[in-house]
Design a protein that fits this description.
Fumarate Reductase Cytochrome B subunit; 3 strands
């Protein structure tokens, strides 16, 4: 016979003497519902029935009815714990649903918890507790968590470790809540109270508990700060996810933001935060820099973000970091006046955005209403696509513009998701483009294309000036350089907008076309060079201080937003969306326009060419059907993409204003 069973039998026999007149056979003669074999094999097998049913002294029928068995006769410590627990209190109040000893351990077939067949064997405990706590009717009528909590446990690391992997070290219900002294979370004595959770988890995660105790979070816990984070604050209670899963990694930042509200906006404005919002796993999360459990203030020499340790911390992701690189501020607040370069550059870029969008917004609205009225009054003559055609753009110009359109659209589509990473449309777009990893490759590829067409155009200018000795591109009517006449034309346009005079007569280039041109001429080096700084930060910081990267981040994002907003709003309107050109002006793709339209839109250029006897030099064949088809397909595709992106930008902008 099992030695433990004999010992238990001896103790019970001493504590509760059996009544000699009744043997187990006497009892089983009537109580045949009790399985004699199971009872004999149970922990109470060596005992007599009357050891537990001590008030029964004679064979039945028993009058009055026997009292319920008092397990506390032998298990006094356990009984005391049970009486204090939520289960025992409910039972004392007469709650029929409250579990008793037999509810969990059984009655006549109780097995030791070491036995795999025992109800209280650790591999059976989750299902045992689920018997009540997954019962919707029971949980609906009692102040306990809903059945979803049990399901969360089953899908969490503890449940999977126990039930799927068979790990006897994985936590079950009783490991955290206790076996008998189960207390509500609000009770200071509860194993799952805010103050006791770290020690409860520390029973298994001892090494992590030691780190936590020394951390900034642990210091708050030791001071009794109930608002400070403990294990369940970050890992939750039942649905604990593996820290190696992408879902957990991507949720780290949002978890930290609940407490670190001051630092969260600056993290979200960084590439680390933006790419994390878009689901990019390799990007640094809070715990990558500050460690998961041993997080300490920067002033502590043991901290992973202490100046002496930054090289090691940053070096986990960035190879060959130097002293200047380490001066980059991953939490730079552009609204903080003390960060002088960042603060003033950010303010300057915001003013530039406001001025450009303010002026051209007014300009566009006035032009739109005036064009609508002009169309209604039939002030714009219709020009049939027949007769002589005039060459407006050479093949190299058209190909350059196509390169500009393709690269600009792809740069916008791959860059905007970072700027608006908090928006759902942005996350969908990034996912469609293959995620941040592929988008980064595409963005850099077409950045190279942008540098390529910019250098090609510069080469064209230099070649014209130095080789062909053609200086007309720097002054005169053929030049894109601003002239006094552009200011005059602008004023005349506003007079026309306000019904105070006729529209101006234009020459080769209008003032808005020159602005478009210089927007690109200015934007390419500004956006390109700032982007290049972010592309090769280790190289840049060999020369410049780390805050230069913070400035580059602001300049790159704000200037790109200015360029995208201007092109997709004002440039599209100037050239395609105004009523007289709607829905598409194909001239830039075919390179040709009818003579009658040329005379109406470029009256001064037409008169000048006639006076100079050079008009014949510009006469060209009409565009081929293939050129027209390409212009329509490519043009409408580019316009559609641009319109979708600008609508998304405006939606994001106004959502932030009105909804925060």
């Amino acid at each position: 016979m099992d030695v433990k069973k004999l010992a238990v039998a001896f103790l019970i026999a001493v504590a509760v003497p059996a009544v000699a007149q009744l043997s187990n056979d006497d009892c089983l003669a009537c109580h045949d519902q009790v399985d004699a074999k199971k009872f004999t094999a149970s922990v109470h097998g060596p005992l007599q029935c009357t050891n537990c049913h001590s008030d029964i002294t004679a064979p039945g029928p028993h009058e009055p009815a026997p009292r319920p068995v008092d397990c506390g006769q032998c298990h006094s410590d356990v009984a005391n714990d049970y009486a204090k627990s939520i289960h025992g209190i409910a039972a004392a109040k007469g709650d029929a649903a409250a579990p008793h000893c037999s509810s969990c351990h059984g009655k006549h077939d109780i097995l030791p918890k070491s036995d795999p067949a025992s109800r209280t064997n650790r591999f059976n405990v989750p299902q045992l507790c689920a018997g009540c706590h997954a019962n919707a009717k029971m949980t609906r009528n009692h102040p306990v968590p809903p059945p979803a909590v049990i399901n969360q446990y089953f899908s969490g690391v503890h449940g999977q470790g126990t039930l799927e992997k068979g790990l006897n070290v994985s936590a079950v219900c009783s490991d955290c809540h206790g076996a008998h002294l189960v207390l509500p979370q609000k009770d200071p004595q509860s194993t799952i109270s805010h103050q006791n959770v770290p020690r409860t988890c520390g029973k298994c995660h001892e090494g992590i508990f030691r780190e936590f105790e020394q951390s900034a979070h642990g210091e708050q816990w030791k001071k009794g700060n109930t608002k400070g984070p403990v294990c369940v604050t970050c890992h939750t209670t039942h649905g604990i996810a593996s820290t190696e899963t992408s879902a957990f990694r991507l949720g780290i930042a949002s978890g930290c933001m609940h407490c670190h509200e001051k630092q969260s906006p600056t993290y979200l404005d960084s590439f680390h935060g933006q790419s994390t919002e878009l689901g990019y796993l390799p990007s640094a999360k809070c715990s990558d820099c500050h460690t998961p459990h041993f997080n300490l203030p920067r002033s502590d020499p043991r901290s992973s973000v202490a100046p002496a340790n930054l090289a090691k911390t940053c070096g986990k992701c960035h190879a060959n970091v130097n002293a200047n690189f380490l001066r980059f501020d991953p939490h730079a607040d552009p609204h903080n006046r003390q960060l002088a370069p960042v603060y003033y550059v950010y303010g300057g870029m915001r003013w530039l955005l406001a001025l450009v969008f303010g002026f051209f917004g007014l300009h566009t609205l006035l032009w739109l209403q005036r064009s609508v009225v002009a169309m209604a009054r039939h002030e714009f003559p219709r020009h049939p696509d027949e007769g002589p055609w005039i060459l407006r753009f050479r093949t190299s110009d058209r190909l350059t513009h196509i390169a500009v359109v393709v690269s600009f659209l792809i740069l916008a589509a791959t860059g905007l998701p970072l700027l608006f990473s908090h928006m759902e449309w942005s996350q969908t777009l990034a996912h469609t483009l293959g995620g941040v990893g592929l988008s980064r490759v595409l963005h850099r590829m077409f950045a190279v294309v942008t540098f390529g067409y910019a250098l090609f155009h510069l080469g064209h200018i230099v070649r014209g000036a130095l080789i062909r000795k053609d200086w007309s591109m720097f002054w005169g009517p053929q030049s894109m350089m601003p002239r006094v006449r552009d200011v005059t034309d602008l004023l005349k346009m506003f007079r026309w907008f306000l019904y105070l005079g006729p529209p101006p007569r234009f020459d080769r280039w209008t003032y808005w076309e020159k602005f478009d041109y210089f927007a690109v001429f200015w934007g390419v080096p500004v956006i390109g060079l700032s982007g290049l700084m972010l592309w090769i930060p280790q190289v840049v910081t060999r020369i410049f201080p780390g805050w230069a990267l913070n400035v580059a981040m602001i300049v790159h994002g704000e200037e790109a937003l200015l360029a995208i907003g201007f092109i997709f709003t004002f440039h599209f309107f100037h050239n395609h969306m105004r009523p007289e050109n709607f829905p598409l002006d194909p001239v830039v793709f075919t390179g040709r326009l009818p003579l009658e339209r040329f005379k109406a839109e470029r009256a001064d250029e037409y008169d000048r060419l006639v006076r100079q006897g050079r008009l014949e030099e510009y006469v060209a064949d009409p565009p081929t059907p293939e050129q027209v088809r390409f212009a329509r397909i490519f043009g409408f595709a580019a316009l559609s993409i641009g319109v979708v992106l600008i609508v998304a930008i405006y939606y994001s902008f106004f959502s932030r204003i009105f909804f925060g």
